[in-house]
Amino acid sequence: MAFYGIGPTWALLWLPVVIAATLLLALGAAWPAALLGLWVPSVTVFAAQVLRILYFAAPGLVALSEVSPEVRAWMVWNPLTGLFESFRSVFLYGTAPAFWDLAYPALVGLVLMAVFIPAYGREQRHFAKLVRG
Amino acid sequence: MTAVRAEGVGVEYLFDRQQQTVSPTLARLRRRGDVTWALRDVSFSIGAGEGVALLGASGSGKSTLLRTIAGVLEPDTGRIGVEGRVGSLLSVQAGVMAMLTGRENTLLLGVLAGMTPERARAQTEAVKEASGLGKHYEHLVASYSQGMRARLGLAVMERTEPAILLLDEIHEALDHEFRDHVERYALALLERGGIVIATGHDHHMLERFSSRAVLLEHGVLKEDGDFHEVQRHYLAGRRA
Predict the structure, then answer these.
(1) pLDDT by residue (tens digit) across B21-42?
(2) N or C: which end of chain A has fewer CB within 10 A?
(3) In sequence order, what are the beta bridge partners of B164?
(4) Which chain A residues have a beta carbon less than 8 Å from that of B23?
(5) Of the candidates B22, B25, B67, which has its C-beta nearest A122's C-beta?
């Protein structure tokens, strides 16, 4: 904000909500990531590339409004897109984040948790057999 | 009352076609390979003040049994009951983390063993003294030898005051001075009414704190009784 010469606005009050949505998505991704890392240890190298792709396929460096409509139609499906746009709204535009920008990544996180937490619970007792070394 | 009881304990390992260990879920997703029972229908009871040696060839299930008693592995069949705090040295890595110093590992292992952070912090100097690591205590564990790691692990474990001590060939990686220390510690624990369960191929050391032995063969308990009797049968079977 200081870099762009923008002062704090009341929109900053939305920051805890944006962080909460970010945490929900991160938590949701953590369960399948933990299981995949154990099931297929070599996937960790691949996972780093997937994360990099997700980052560049989201409006982190360039605002979504600056992206061509064709690319935008794909980008909105990336759960990171709404989070980047929300942080941009709160810090740079001084506006409240759009509902779906927060709801979509939070929903993805919740769905991942609903699917993978029970799977994690079932698998947990076998972890010690799978860990090498 | 300190006790270890196993009733029909079985531990199963599933493998895929590449002979990688897989969980049941993964076995359903991948083309399944072999099934191996590391332990099958193992039952015994160990009471306070008993020292028990687990004998058997490599791959007979000794380490799996120790890991099951320690709670690292959960039995797939049967049940295991442990009464008393367990202290274990199950590998030469002794549960220490290479990227932390000896002091940092002391804090981490202490907290993982159930100590409060304050109590774990208060133990650090005593652990430094007991481990005999000197200035190396402040160095990264990555620079330690296997023996040094085991000494650190044992020194921390002693501070958790276990009633049941599990040793998995770890004492065989130690120097003579520290092996004597492990032996004295095991004997003192037995005198206090604790339990010592140890595996290894150094039978001379095992017999000094084991009055009883359990012989395992391909995961099955073949014999349970007096140490010298079981040892004689085991060695006779090896020669045959």
Answers:
(1) 888 888 877 777 788 999 999 9
(2) C
(3) B86, B195
(4) 39, 123, 126, 129-130
(5) B25
